[in-house]
Structure formats: structure tokens, C-alpha cells
Amino acid sequence: MIDLIAYIGSAFILVSFMLKDQIKLRILNSIGALIFIYYSVYKGDYPVIFINSSIVIINLIYIIKNTKWKKDTKNVIH
């Protein structure tokens, strides 16, 4: 049953790479990484926890920077 969680995480990551919108891609990718973190905590697989935590942090930074940039430029243009 616990392995099903890993397959669900894999599906989120796989589908994320099919998206063109970078924000949506990173959101789905982060969801998959969070699922893998949950799975890896259960399994005690610390390298996988580390890499997926890093991926979530990088994705969040990208999302925050790009949504803030889009809002700032939108105000300048209009």
C-alpha cells in the first residue's frame, strides 16, 4: 500500500513535465516531491527526503519570484 504513494508521486512529477506553463509545472512537480517526502519519511530514505525537499524549495522560490515579477510588470504596463 505504501508503494502506491510513490507511484502517485511519480505520476504527478511525470505529468508536470508535460505542461508548458512553468508555474503549473512547478506546482505539480512540488506536489509530487511532497508526496515523495512523505513516502521517504516512512521508508527512512534520507537522501530522497533531501533532494525532494530541495526541489520543493527551488520550485517555491521560482513561483514566488515569477508571480511577483509578473504582478510588478503588469502594474508598470497598465
How many structural units, i.e. domains?
A: 1
What average pLDDT do the residues reach? 90
Low-confidence stretches: none
User: With helices defined by DSSP (H or I, 4 residues minimum), what is the helix count?
Assistant: 3
Strand percent estimate:
under 5%
Strand-pairing-aware structural class: mainly alpha
Distance from first to last alpha carbon: 52 Å
- Strand and helix order: HHH
Major sheet: none
Write down the Rg: 15 Å
Number of strands: 0
What would the principal axes of the Cα set say about the shape?
A: flat
Work out the helicity level.
Answer: over 70%
Give the topology.
Blueprint: H1 2-16, H2 22-43, H3 46-77
Helix pairs in contact: 1-2, 2-3
Kindly describe this structure:
This protein starts with a helix and ends with a helix. It is mostly helical and 78 residues long. The chain is flat. 18% of the residues are buried. It contains three helices and no strands. The chain has one domain. The mean pLDDT is 90. Helix 1 runs antiparallel to helix 2 and helix 2 packs antiparallel against helix 3.
